[in-house]
C-alpha cells in the first residue's frame, strides 16, 4: 500500500516514518519506533493495555491513526521515568505490587497518571460524591476512573492502593 511521511513526537524525540495511512498509533509505536512498552491486548478499544498520553490526556493508541497524532506530545511508559528515577506512579505500582503478570501495567500506569491530572483539574468522575464515606468514596472513584483498564490477574486492589498513595 502507498505510504506517507508521518512525524511523531514520542517521549521528546521526533520520529519521521513512512507509514500506510491506516497504521494505528499503537502499531507505529511498537512496530516502527520499536517502543514495545505499550501493549496490544484487544486492538479494538476494550482493554486499555495500549493506553498512552497525548498532550497529557490518555487515549487508546489502538483506536487512533498515527497520522492524526502529528504535532502532538506523545508519552509512553518508557517516557515517564528512567531506570534510575522512576515516575512516582511507577514507584507506587512497584511498592504496592500493582500487577501480577505485568501485561496491562504500562497502560494502567499511563491511565493512572492521567487520572491524577484529571482529579487535580477538577474533572468529575461518574461516582456520586459521598463525603461521609471518604475512604470508600476514594476507592470507588479511582475504580470508576480506571474502569477502562482491564487486569486479567485481578490486581485491582493493589492498583487502587498505588493510585491512592500518589493522589495523596
Ligand atoms: Fe487498545 Fe485493547 S489494545 S484497548
Automatic annotation (TrEMBL):
Give the 2Fe-2S ferredoxin-type domain ranges. 4-80
Report the source organism.
Novosphingobium hassiacum
Q: Which UniProt keywords apply?
A: 2Fe-2S, Iron, Iron-sulfur, Metal-binding, Oxidoreductase, Periplasm, Signal
Its transmembrane ranges are: none
Oxidoreductase in keyword set: yes
Q: What is its EC number?
A: 1.2.99.6
Q: What is this protein called?
A: Aldehyde oxidoreductase iron-sulfur-binding subunit PaoA
Its function, per the record, reads:
Oxidizes aldehydes to the corresponding carboxylic acids with a preference for aromatic aldehydes. It might play a role in the detoxification of aldehydes to avoid cell damage.
The catalytic activity, as recorded, is: an aldehyde + A + H2O = a carboxylate + AH2 + H(+)
Source superkingdom? Bacteria
Recorded GO MF terms: 2 iron, 2 sulfur cluster binding; carboxylate reductase activity; metal ion binding
Instruction: Please tell me whether the keyword Lyase is annotated for this protein.
Output: no
State the compartments where it is located.
Periplasm
Q: How does it assemble?
A: Heterotrimer composed of PaoA, PaoB and PaoC.
This protein's GO cellular component annotations are:
periplasmic space
Amino acid at each position: 500500500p502507498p505510504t506517507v511521511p508521518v512525524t511523531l513526537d514520542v517521549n521528546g524525540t521526533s520520529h519521521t516514518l513512512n507509514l500506510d495511512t491506516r497504521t494505528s498509533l499503537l502499531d507505529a509505536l511498537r512496530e516502527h519506533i520499536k517502543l514495545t512498552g505499550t501493549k496490544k491486548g484487544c486492538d479494538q478499544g476494550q482493554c486499555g493495555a495500549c493506553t498512552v498520553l497525548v498532550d497529557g490526556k490518555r487515549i487508546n493508541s489502538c483506536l487512533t491513526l498515527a497520522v492524526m497524532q502529528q504535532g502532538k506530545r506523545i508519552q509512553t511508559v518508557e517516557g515517564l521515568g528512567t531506570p534510575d528515577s522512576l515516575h512516582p506512579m511507577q514507584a507506587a505500582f512497584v511498592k504496592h505490587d500493582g500487577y501480577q503478570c505485568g501485561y496491562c501495567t504500562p497502560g494502567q500506569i499511563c491511565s493512572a497518571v492521567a487520572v491524577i491530572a484529571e482529579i487535580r483539574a477538577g474533572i468529575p468522575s461518574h461516582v456520586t460524591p459521598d463525603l461521609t464515606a471518604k475512604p470508600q468514596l476514594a476507592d470507588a472513584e479511582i475504580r470508576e476512573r480506571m474502569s477502562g483498564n482491564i487486569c486479567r490477574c485481578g490486581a485491582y486492589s493493589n492498583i487502587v492502593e498505588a493510585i491512592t498513595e500518589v493522589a495523596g
